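Just scan my protein:

. . .
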Amino acid sequence: RMVVDSGASETLLDAEIGTAIGIDVVSGVPKKVGGITGSTTGYEHRVQIGLVSLDDVLEVDVIFVLNMGASGLLGQDTFFSRYDVRFEKRRLKFAVERAPLLENDF
């Protein structure tokens, strides 16, 4: 399971997940990442992510972070650029729909 993080500009996964699926995490492109707990170096790889509840598979760049402390964060680059997300706090609703293609998506 991953967290949809509207404040995250990139998609991050814990390095243990990368290792578990056969990726040599530290062979990726080093990237500096930061958040509310500080900053660290992660390693970027192109992977496929399955979104089970949306019946979709995305090929995306993911930054694997050592000792991340969470499974992963779906950031703006991966999730919010492909889906329309609606938060209705007063109604306690969260809705996700595949975004229609725009002219610059081709």
